[in-house]
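Worked example

This section walks through a single chain of length 166. The input is the sequence exactly as stored; nothing has been trimmed or padded.
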Amino acid sequence: MVDKKAENRQDTADNRKDTADKVRKVRRDELEKLLELYRYLNPEDPDIFGEEATNKLWDEIRGDPRQSILVLEEDGCLAASCTLVIVSNLTRGGRPYALIENVVTNGSFRRKGYGTAVLDKAVAMAREKGCYKVMLLTGRNNEGVFSFYENAGFNRYAKTAFYMKL
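Given that input, the structure is written out below as tokens.
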């Protein structure tokens, strides 16, 4: 008799690996595609402040070796992304920690594992850099979003977050 649960787990693992293989660092020429994807994150965000300032900021971000913007491309557009920042640290034996921010999936590509894939890659990169922890915050107050992060391995009860908007 065929174990359907085991078969489904294997299919899920295979799909997750195939999807994970698509995750990469954003390319310099993908700024417009990334900004388009970010509209799903915060639709009310204003544009930056002109092309020159935007390009200068883009070059600064891309030139920062401790900052990585990860993307998954599908059908010619950026389907999902997150930003990983590695922070140097004088505690924990000098081991750095990581922050994940700007986790977003294009509305047309949700529920396909793309968001999980970019998170998995970010966590793997943090591990490779010797980080002792990875942190992220969400501004969404939605059980589905919480479950998404928990299914990706994050624990919402491990720490208490405090937030101050500036």
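What to look for: Residues 4-151 form a domain with the Aminopeptidase fold (CATH 3.40.630.30).
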